[in-house]
Design brief:
The structure is a homodimer of 429-residue chains. The first copy, chain A, has 429 residues and is α+β, with helices and mostly antiparallel strands. The first copy, chain A, is built from 12 helices and 16 strands. Chain A folds into 2 domains: 86 residues, Beta Barrel (OB fold (Dihydrolipoamide Acetyltransferase, E2P)); 297 residues, BirA Bifunctional Protein, domain 2 (2-Layer Sandwich), CATH 3.30.930. The first copy, chain A, is elongated, with a radius of gyration of 26 Å.
Chain lengths: 429, 429
């Protein structure tokens, strides 16, 4: 039996007899011939069917039926890739498929988002949809390759935790053998502890937020790309690693998923050698906001994004020095003015993509920070252990994978770039 | 200020003044000098302190205090790596550390497992412990590199699911905005659906089992390495990919974590070009078990492991054909005898490491399989969608990361190789 050939490699088999395998993407029956498009993981191939028996066979095989086609590779300038299969014989690898819930052969899927999400297991077969997750996969690869090369160790921290990480309000509660446990909102505490072990760590994993909001930006579960490193001077060292990581992610897409980027309509950014940085107080001034605002509003972020593009030709802008009030207790203050912190947000095209910064590393500072917020250190016992036993100055950041791909393809709704989104109303498929 | 040098690279800086940064691993005060061992992410370095003021400074800095040492690199055949630092000046990068709960400088940590796990954030700093997770990280890298090279796409499936995947008995229940949801016991359904999209997929992620057992083999949360691929002939094609993956994992350890393998006392296997395969019925006969046994007992697996080593010189043995009764409903029967299935377990040194096989791919077969088990297809609606719309013959497998590292270092208890294990009694740290 002929070995399988992928549809995008036909050009190297001209005039040979080959076998391709895939899904019936589309059939077009004309007066004397039927055009068949077969889709496999590499792309599409055209098959020309003129034999009557085979045309009749195709008539009963709906779109999405899985088939094997043996045919002769023939040049045709009009076919995808300049080649098509002629004089084919077709073997069915699955029973005839039911009519797909969405027309996968159309260039774009013109159906509502809820329908798309309900039909995700089949709808995501559409080439432009597939491409979005190929971008995500290529990004993850670039993320890890960059950090592996810089001597980071990959960790996997537990998602079932005994206490909530950041704030109790948005934590999912699990029945853990009859007692309550929580789903980790982030690997924050674990990645810090592991700086004590490996100095430099990263993790790719799910995080869980019981967000009671139904918006285009929120997910109850998403993929977080977490990084933490020790022996830094301050948060600027963290920003430098973040720059390398994002550059590596874009580079990986260019290298391994250029076609997917095109199919998904992604606009890949140029990552500058160094991110432009602006202080939070200066950012407020620049957008004409009240100097006592504790945070940037979305319209401020958009204005700053435009400013970065005009002034620095950069899709990215780091805003540093966020006020302590809006940052978690482990955030390191700005040494010369404790109203501010050594933390940052990275804006990508005017939207917050990454949050990061330097953390406290002295036990006494944690005790004080918790006391200032009226919290007891007892709730953080196993986390605080670490700081009693020697921790270097350290910091890190977290990138939301879905937020990243949403920005790349300029999606209007984060659910559109999430494989199986979870929110207030959706827990299936 | 001098740039930081890693402790294992001192040999390339002989007679230069360098700065190292790390933890005080050990101090030994002799009559006229103090030996200081500094630990950083690369390993250990010896510092010789003869200056009185610096010796007194060290007296008040406990083990695990984080310091910076500037000193001259001097040859000393007795020191680790043949070099040591002399005439040092020491800068404190953290407050003096409290005495560690375990003596990290001892070659082995001779404390009970519960103590180790309670003190994990600090105990895992021990070089031999660190090494275990470096093995895990290197294995993951080899896993992904192998599959990336074979055209697989990485996916991230949701961990919050609307129905239980395999059997209700061991599923954790989550309060999902006032309704019940479940923690995924495996990405099985999602990876199969994604074969319809990408043909070949893999995922590394947490899985959750509410195992009410307190044993040396069970974890309530572990890291699963999942693979699924379409257009196979049968489960033997899946076994071939599994072989490549395990070979890639071992190769990655040899290439990127050879020192960790030595420190952790790992015994790396040779992965044969092809796994020896034995049929389940033949396996029962070989170990002298009742031919009607539906599964292999642990002592049978151990006996088969010894047999594979003797007969095939292999640490691995694939057992194929397990009876349908003991396999999930989506398992593909053995075409010539439906008492058996196209599934396998891979034994590694006489312990089950991997479960896998060919799955059903026709909708009608799923309906029948569920009916045979008295289950309604309604509960699996979004999963079954996939099979109505054309799915190729496919199969896959899952490797438990902790089980893999446990076997490599021959750990007596899986908790010993798990960063932060979760079980019936343990949810912290």
């Amino acid at each position: 039996m002929l070995q399988r050939t992928l549809s995008t490699t036909l050009a190297s088999h001209q005039d040979e007899r080959v076998a391709i395998e895939g899904w019936i993407h589309r059939r077009r029956r004309l007066a004397t011939i039927t055009f068949l498009i077969v889709r496999d993981r590499s792309g599409l191939a055209q098959v020309v069917v003129s034999d009557d028996a085979t045309r009749q066979q195709l008539d009963r095989l709906g779109e999405e039926t899985v088939i094997r086609v043996e045919g002769t590779v023939s040049a045709n300038a009009k076919a995808h890739g300049g080649m098509e299969l002629t004089t084919p014989t077709i073997t069915e690898l699955s029973a005839p498929a039911a009519t797909p819930p969405v027309e996968l052969w159309r260039p774009t899927l013109a159906v509502s988002l809820p329908t798309l999400l309900d039909k995700a297991p089949v709808a995501w077969r559409h080439p432009a949809q597939q491409a979005i997750w190929r971008l995500a996969a290529a990004s993850l690869r670039g993320f890890r390759e960059t950090l592996d090369a810089e001597d980071f160790t990959e960790i996997q921290s537990p998602k079932l935790v005994g206490g909530s990480t950041e704030s109790g309000a948005t934590t999912f509660i699990v029945d853990y053998f009859g007692r309550p446990a929580y789903l980790a909102q982030s690997p924050q505490f674990y990645k810090q502890m592991m700086v004590g072990v490996f100095e430099r760590v990263y993790e790719v994993g799910p995080v869980f937020r019981a967000e009671p909001h139904d918006t285009v930006r929120h997910l109850a579960e998403y993929v977080s790309l977490d990084v933490e490193l020790g022996f830094i001077r301050d948060h600027r060292d963290v920003l430098r690693v973040l720059r390398d990581v994002l550059a590596g992610m874009v580079e990986s897409i260019r290298k391994t998923a250029a076609e997917a980027a095109e199919l998904a309509g992604a606009r890949l950014p140029d990552v500058p050698a160094e991110f432009p940085v602006i202080h939070f107080s200066e950012a407020l001034r620049l957008v004409g906001a009240d100097p006592h605002e504790p945070d940037l509003a979305p319209e401020h972020e958009r204005a700053l994004g435009r400013w970065a593009l005009e002034q620095h030709g950069s899709d990215f802008l780091a805003v540093e020095g966020y006020p302590a009030a809006k940052r978690p207790f482990y955030t390191h203050p700005q040494p010369d003015d404790p109203r501010w912190t050594n933390s940052f947000d990275l804006l990508f095209r005017g939207v917050e993509l990454v949050t990061g910064g330097q953390r406290l590393h002295e036990y006494a500072d944690y005790e004080r920070a918790l006391a200032d917020r009226g919290e007891s250190p007892d709730a953080y016992e196993s986390y605080l252990q670490t700081f009693r036993h020697g921790m270097p100055p350290h910091g890190g950041f977290a990138i939301g994978l879905e937020r990243w791909t949403a920005r790349l393809v300029e999606a209007d709704n984060i659910h559109r770039v999430t494989l199986f989104p979870r929110d207030l109303h959706r827990i299936t498929p």
